[in-house]
Amino acid sequence: MPQPGPPPGGTGAAWAHGRQTAALQQAAGAEGQAPLHLQPAHGPWQPVTWRRWPGPARPAPPAAVVAVFGAAALGTLALPLDRPGMGWVVAGTGAAAALAVAGRAAAPDRMPPALIPAKPPARHADRIGWAAATLALLTVGTFRAAGWLFALCVLASLFTAALAVGGGRSVRAVAWTVAGQPIAALRALPWLSRGAAVLRRGDGTRARYALTAAVAAVLLLVFGGLFASADPAFAELVSSLLPTLDAGTVARWALLFPVLTAAVAGAAYWRAAPPATAHLDVPQYRPVRRLEWLVPLAALVLLFAAFVAVQATVLFGGAGHVLRTAGLTYAEYARAGFWQLLVVTGLTLLVLAGAVRWAPRAGRGDRTVVRVLLGLLAGLTLLIVASALYRMGVYADAYGLTRLRILVFACELWLGAVFVMVLIAGVRLRAPWLPRAVLAAGVAALLGLAAVDPDRTIAEYNLNHGPVDVWYLRNLSADAVPALDRAPAHLRLCLLGENASPLNLTRESWYEFNLARERARPLLTGISVSGKPLGCPVD
């Protein structure tokens, strides 16, 4: 029997492709399997702008839609924007769970079309590690009340959360992963809306689930209200669980819900169809002639060596040597040069990055010279870091601790760890792990700072070493209250007065729970905050 030919106006190639697709689908159906839905190997044509990031081919799966909106609703209810609290880690955990559900539901979209080279998926352990780091940073708000410290943790958690979603091994890949999250949030909104439209056109099962949930909510509201009116203790429990409904709360919800929806949807969009970033992980080397980089770097090494030699003289000569040569006290000398040394440390990292990019390494001699000079520069910088830390210690002994001083001390320790890693990486002149290790060290330094409890450490140190800056200690957070409570009797009321505020004295909702404020509350009972408390020095 003769086979039918292509239709008028059609091409033979398109007609043959359609016949092949129909035959495969018919064969699959004959074997009792689900019909195959084949697409061209190249996938649909995309705009040139998004050729490396075409996005998911289908709308958001129903499970992903529900998970995204559920996580956004949980975060809207739980986030205490005006203070550190347990709600931050609750919202973060909800977002992580939503991404896990959405990622599993959208698993087919993560597989690239046939015949298209794609970057292998990032190691699963890396993503889990960054997700754990994100939750650890948000957990700080449950234990520490210092707003400045928790603000740094939230800022760092944005970077770790981006890496948990997108991965990245090189500096360029990590930077694109972080910068691309807002773009993903914008591109995810149409993807999510199409998925929500599919969800609304369901077969009625989901509508029954929604009706069941609504009935359960109505029953809880009715009987819960009756129980609350019948028993004051139960009413207090209910009031601590439910947020206060007022204009401010509604406005906060109206602002938070769309922002959190876009953020979680963007992360789910990225996980469903990540952009191609393999080209960003390829090292970029642009070697120059040996003399062109050897002379400047060798001169810098000699300068660093001269400075370290002078620092050794000062270190062993002590305060008398400084007073004779510089006309300054030891503490003044330490303060005068600390910030310059911090800038030198940061600039040296840029110099090392440029040297690695431009230094020739074709021959064995080139590689040896690179290792020697970069090793000397990193080693001398470590000594400069040690000098800066010593200066900060001398300065703190003379003038006491402050938040800025303890934060800079932690930053110097982190930079020292970075230079140690640079020395290790210089052995092979190849360290794809270094960018992630630097970020991980920064997260570890921040978590270590939170573990030290800086506000309480500042209060204890300054009260024990003097002189006491009453007005500075008075403005520390509730973390410092246990230490301030042990201050001399003539200073205690003054030091605790600023913390005896409604923020620390009022019973909080569950999502606002903070261990430091909870511990400080009994110690602040009965202390007045109005006017100038008894015991404060007169201006």
TrEMBL record:
Pfam families tied to this protein: DUF4153
Transmembrane segments: 60-79, 85-107, 128-161, 209-230, 250-272, 293-316, 336-356, 368-392, 404-426, 433-452
Protein keywords: Membrane, Transmembrane, Transmembrane helix
InterPro entries: DUF4153
Highest taxon, organism lineage: Bacteria
Protein name stated in the entry: DUF4173 domain-containing protein
Species this protein is from: Spirilliplanes yamanashiensis
